[in-house]
Every structure is written in C-alpha cells, then in structure tokens.
Design a protein that fits this description.
eight-stranded mixed beta sheet; OB fold (Dihydrolipoamide Acetyltransferase, E2P); 218 residues; alpha+beta; 35% helix
Length: 218
C-alpha cells in the first residue's frame, strides 16, 4: 500500500494568532485540559484544550478516539496538524493529527487513504514498524534496465515513498514505482500472449484438407 500524497509539516507555529483558516497547519502547544463524554448517539466525544505561549486557547475535537485518553494528559507538549477554523468566537480544529513534541519529528508526512474504516493516519504511524523489513523486498527488474532508466532498486524506491528525505525524493520514488507497475503489466501481457501462441502451436490438431470441397466453395 502506497501513500496517495505528501504533506509538508515543516512550517510550525507556537502562536495561535498566526492560524490561517484557509490551509492546514502545524501548531506546538501544551494540553491544558482533556475530557470525554457520550453524545446522544452514544458516540465518544473527546475534547482537548490547548494553550499557546501567549496563553491563547484552541479546542480540539475527536469522535471515538478512546486511545487518546490513554496516550495524552494535561501538561503534555504536543504538535497538532489540521485545518483550523474560527467558530462561535473561538479557534478550533476537528479530527486533528496529534503527537508528542519531538525535536527530530518527521516534517514530511506521507498521506494514506482510509481502508475499511481503518484510519489512514493510523496506517501511517504503523509504517514505522515495517521500516526494517523493506530492505528484504525482492527485485524483479533486471539491473541493466534500472541503470538505463536511472532508477533505484525496488526496496529503495519503497523506502523513499514511505520515508522520503525531501519532496523531490518522494516524487522520484513515485515515478519509479509507477514505471514498475506499468512494466509488470506489460510483461505479463507479453508472457500471456507468448504462452497462448506457443501452446496453440503444440496443442492444435492437424485438419485434413478436402481439395475438391475448397474448389467448390471458392
């Protein structure tokens, strides 16, 4: 499974007054309060109040994210990423991505699609657990072809698409993997055509030709 896009989270601010409601942004702040309650439809509603360095507030809202109550607590310094909005005179964000603040945080984040009610954000976080196994992926294209195209091997391309060093690195990996899919598709088509032709040559039964009948038909 490959990511469908790439988000740049390198631009981070610690002041809520800098919020731009027209685009997604990253904020670093401290958790002031984290609460939960049940809605009329029995959904778990989680609210989080963040405070920035100027003592301004932002409210975060999630539904059915019980694990957040176990992973985050008041006083934690966190980074949130999402689409901010001003509503009823306050700054808020729905379904924001949240993580504990780290100096070496990942700034370029691949975006994964939701699959069968499994969050794409959750899938992205689990990719880290598979990182060490990517190098084991086998190569199925001849090295001469890769060298001619200037492409990396399969394992390196997969690593770059999930853990890119830069936007250009991610774009190159995307190009390489797209070429592989097309190459594999065409190769299978040629092999199938060859097998049909090769198989029909040996399996077809000879038919006797009735010369007199052919002359009448002509």
């Amino acid at each position: 499974m490959y990511p469908r896009g790439l988000e740049d989270k390198s631009q981070i601010t610690s002041i809520f007054a800098n919020a731009n409601v027209k685009e997604k942004q990253s904020f670093v702040a401290k958790i002031e309060l984290l609460t939960s309650e049940r809605t009329r439809n029995n959904k778990l509603l989680i609210k989080c109040v963040l405070i920035d360095e100027n003592d301004s507030y932002m409210e975060l809202v999630w539904f059915n994210r019980k694990f957040l109550l176990q992973q985050y607590h008041s006083g934690d310094r966190v980074v949130v990423y999402g689409q901010p909005k001003y509503e009823y005179g306050k700054l808020s964000m729905n379904n924001a991505e949240i993580e504990h603040y780290k100096e070496n945080r990942q700034e370029l984040a691949p975006v994964y699609s939701d699959v069968n009610y499994i969050s794409g954000v959750w899938i992205g976080k689990k990719m880290t657990l598979l990182k060490k196994y990517i190098s084991l992926l086998p190569e199925n294209i001849d090295k001469k072809i890769l060298a001619k195209k200037g492409f990396r091997n399969f394992a390196d391309s997969v690593y770059a698409i999930h853990f890119p060093k830069s936007k250009s690195d991610w774009e190159q990996a995307k190009k390489e993997l797209a070429y592989r899919e097309l190459f594999t598709f065409q190769k299978r088509g040629i092999e199938k055509k060859y097998n049909l032709q090769h198989g029909s040559t040996h399996s077809a039964h000879p038919l006797a030709l009735d010369v007199d009948l052919m002359k009448k038909l002509i």
